[in-house]
Design a protein that fits this description.
96 residues; 43% helix; mainly alpha; 3 helices
Length: 96
């Protein structure tokens, strides 16, 4: 007899143990397609004054990395805040 696929509401341990022993291809007839929407993080415009040589260096480094200079600056700010706060802040609010 074929094992039944556990509910998605089952505990993590139950799901982990089940899927360690089974392949999703065994249950293709029981699966259904679902639509998942991930909300985009809301961004705010920030104006920042920097010296020309700082901007030039940022643009050069960003070009080497294959990203836009504003994207690189945003990445660096996020990384540094994460280090200072001791956690990832990509999708969490800063607690005061």
């Amino acid at each position: 007899m074929k094992d039944r696929m556990p509910s998605a509401r089952a505990s993590d341990d139950t799901l982990r143990a089940f899927w360690d022993k089974h392949s999703v291809t065994e249950f293709e007839g029981q699966l259904r397609r679902v639509q998942i929407k991930f909300p985009k993080p809301r961004k705010r415009l920030v104006s920042l004054r920097v010296e020309q040589n700082t901007l030039d260096a940022l643009r050069v480094l960003a070009q080497r990395k294959g990203v836009g200079y504003l994207t690189l600056a945003r990445m660096w700010i996020t990384e540094r805040l994460g280090k200072e706060l001791g956690r990832s802040i990509a999708h969490s609010a800063v607690r005061r």
